[in-house]
Amino acid sequence: MNGFRYKEDRWPVFIVLALTVIDFILYFTINDIAVLGGYYLLMLLPKGVICAWNHHHQHLFTFRHAFLNRGLEFVYALHTGVTTHLWRLHHVLGHHLNFLDQEQDESRWKRKDGTRMGMGEYTLNVALTAYSRGYRVGKKHPKQLSTFLIYTAITFIIVAILVWYKPVAGLMLFVLPMITSLLFTAYVTYEHHSGLDTKNEFEASYNNLDPLFNRLTGNLGYHTAHHHKQGVHWSKLPALHAEIEDRIPAHLYQKSIFTRMIGSG
To answer: Which residue range or ranges hold the Fatty acid desaturase domain (predicted)?
Structure first.
């Protein structure tokens, strides 16, 4: 039986699982810190891309069966530093409900005095508070919080065992990527809403229509559409964008940091 909700998720999941297999092959076969370090640097951007797919999964679970979703989330966590239900709490039940209110937004870009954070400050602020803010949102959603706490504990225990068994490989293949991918996630989200102080949802997000960017990130560039109906599958976002694009001001289209990094557009 096909466990996927949408057939479009097959290739992204296959690629993520293939990269995970490579990680574990290297873990069990390579001890050279130079090789592991080179691989870590080589995978910085690909694992950054995986963060976008983890984000999509947290909005709309990839599989029809819970055990498959939990397994996929463990794999995602090893690449992105974001465990089961963390983004579901912090992002889906937090940021998406509060992004127009900078006093409540879990990914807020304003300081307490109302001024705009710089990119570095925002990156550290969002990354370092991700788990604590997710936990606070979870207090309003005890069932989601319970799943988050259980599977986060399981993930961290397994990672600790991997580091204990092979410290260098464990750190280079799992711990460091988890940390840097979480920082990368916060870094690239700075441009999603930063500086857009408005109560109008159609004027509160920047959009990036670059084809390569959207192919790599699952149409994350259609960000206004994503916030307009966050439960829409990523493959349907271009069509949704077409329905609302006349309500999006022209100045809210731009190349993102990520697009400039990959040299697209």
So the answer is: 35-252
Round to the nearest angstrom and report the end-to-end CA distance of the chain: 40
Judged by DSSP in three states, 4 sits in: strand
**CA 103/CA 25 separation, integer angstroms:** 45
Whole-number Cα distances in Å, 181 to 8, 53, 156: 24, 13, 16
pLDDT tens digits, residue range 131-183? 999 999 999 999 999 999 999 999 999 999 999 999 999 999 999 999 999 99
Q: How are the residues of the chain apportioned to helix, strand and coil, as percentages rounded to the nearest 5?
A: 70, 0, 30
Rounded to whole angstroms, the Cα distance separating 245 from 251 reads 12
Q: In a 3-state reduction of DSSP, which class is residue 224?
A: helix
Query: To 5 degrees, how large is the angle CA 137–CA 224–CA 258?
Result: 90
